[in-house]
Amino acid sequence: MQEPGELLPFLFAKLSGQGRNAVKSILARGQVSVDGASVTAYNHPLRPGAVVAVSRERIEEVPQLIGLSIIHEDDDLIVVSKEAGLLSIASPQENELTAYRQLTDHVRRSDPRSRIFVVHRLDRDTSGVMMFAKSEAVQQSLQNNWQEAVTERVYVALVEGRVSKLEGTISSWLKESKTLKMYSSPYPNDGQHAVTHYKTLETRPQLSLLEIRLETGRKNQIRVHMQDIGHPVVGDKKYGSKSKVLGRLGLHARVLAFVHPTTGQQLRFETDIPKTFVNALKI
Fold first, then answer.
1. What CATH class has 68-282?
2. Does 123 qualify as catalytic in the annotation?
3. Pairwise CA distance, residues 215 & 195, whole Å
4. Residues 6+ apart with CB under 8 A from 218
5. Structure confidence by residue, pLDDT tens digits, 71-119
6. Residue 140 burial (CB < 10 Å; 0-12/13-18/19+)?
7. 219, 222, 213: which is closest to 257 by C-alpha?
8. How many CB atoms lie within 10 A of CB 107?
9. Are 117 and 134 in contact (CB under 8 A)?
10. CATH class of 5-54
11. What are the two backbone dihedrals, phi and then psi, of residue 129, each rounded to the nearest 5 degrees?
């Protein structure tokens, strides 16, 4: 490149044997680099001395993750932020887009033999931080030592009504009914022990925003315990909610902190409280 100019006219001149649309396609597909960096903008400025290279191979576009973003990835783990509405993993009978399927595709782009292993799950309508392992050994290490490995699990919940007791602890024994609904047994030692700590962040006559720390991680634990204290999670029809103010479940996994199973490093990941939760309190 001898004189200043723009990329597309330069390519038209140098690739005169190609049609104009073909040249535009080559550029749009990411096959052109300027000084070693891939460029797709037609009007990218070219300075004298710039090195323009055209790759013969089409650069594959990386599919965008849907309802999911990667917060952290290393050789052993992937930590993601999941949106409400996305399944963590589907049953064998279902053929739905899930966090598990998308992350499996993600790791297989660099190595077709790679696999993803589920460490814990979030309900479809719960958003927030969750973690996947890249090997069965790491998955087993985390699951077998979950109480010791996970140092912090914090949720935020938008619940119905004004919570009169600003903070407290809920303890019960959880069981599952024949209809697959969890409930607190009235009898001690009958089921799995579940302990939930909550603190009120904001409260209004109709709604309250709570910070919830899990001491145990049982199925639907927060949802059952919120119903137990008379303040079901917004949008949780299964556990007594009548409010549809959000159009989704008012539950978000905000913080996940744990000891890395391989390095021993303490890692902590925090996401923002969903704006829809905060805005609902202003109505």
1. alpha beta
2. yes
3. 5
4. 174, 182, 192, 194
5. 999 999 999 999 999 999 987 766 788 999 999 998 888 788 899 999 9
6. middle
7. 213
8. 17
9. yes
10. alpha beta
11. -85, 130
Instruction: Indicate which residue of 75, 123, 190, 228 is catalytic.
Output: 123
Distance CA 186, CA 163 (A): 23
d(CA 116, CA 104): 6
**C-alpha separations of 168 from 78, 202, 276 in Å:** 33, 15, 25
For CATH 3.30.2350.10, the residue range(s) in the chain are: 68-282
Q: Are 172 and 228 in contact (CB under 8 A)?
A: yes
CATH 3.10.290.10 residue ranges for the chain: 5-54
User: Residues 241, 246, 248, 250: what is their CA dihedral angle, to the nearest 10 degrees?
Assistant: -70
DSSP string, 233-282: BTT-GGGT----SSSS-SEEEEEEEEE-TTT--EEEEE-PPPHHHHHHHH
In the block, residue with structure tokens 């799995």: 192
| Model pLDDT, residue 35 | 87
Q: What confidence tens digit (pLDDT) does each residue in 175-229 have?
A: 999 999 999 999 999 999 999 999 999 999 999 999 999 998 899 999 999 999 9
Closest residue by Cα to residue 273 from 201, 218, 166, 222: 201
Please say whether the beta carbons of 101 and 90 come within 8 A: yes
User: Does residue 69 sit in helix, strand or coil?
Assistant: strand
- Tell me how far apart the alpha carbons of residues 238 and 158 are, in angstroms, rounded to a whole number: 15
The residue among 154, 225, 165, 153 whose CA lies nearest residue 194 is 225
Q: Which phi and psi angles does 4 have, rounded to 5°?
A: -60, 150
